[in-house]
Design a protein that fits this description.
Number of strands: 4
Largest sheet: 4 strands, antiparallel
Strand order of the largest sheet: 1-4-2-3
Radius of gyration: 12 Å
Strand content: 15-25%
Number of helices: 2
Distance between the termini: 29 Å
Helix content: 25-40%
């Protein structure tokens, strides 16, 4: 999914936690660590600052089954 930043200077992890339903900030940070988030076409880092209109591409991996 592609999301677009709407608050200038917001941290990427905070934006993801706000914009993606049922995603906590720690969950957002995990997605970032796993390389599931692209900011301006490059892997994002949790403390990246956003500009209005920045495209954020998010890939939510399939849940892993636990034995």
């Amino acid at each position: 999914m592609t999301l677009y930043a709407d608050i200038p200077g917001e941290r990427l992890d905070a934006f993801l936690a706000r914009a993606v339903e049922n995603l906590s900030r720690s969950g957002a940070q995990k997605l970032l660590e796993e390389g599931c988030v692209l900011l301006r076409g490059k892997p994002g880092r949790k403390n990246d600052k956003l500009a209005i209109g920045d495209a954020v591409e998010v890939t939510i991996p399939e849940p892993k089954t636990v034995d």
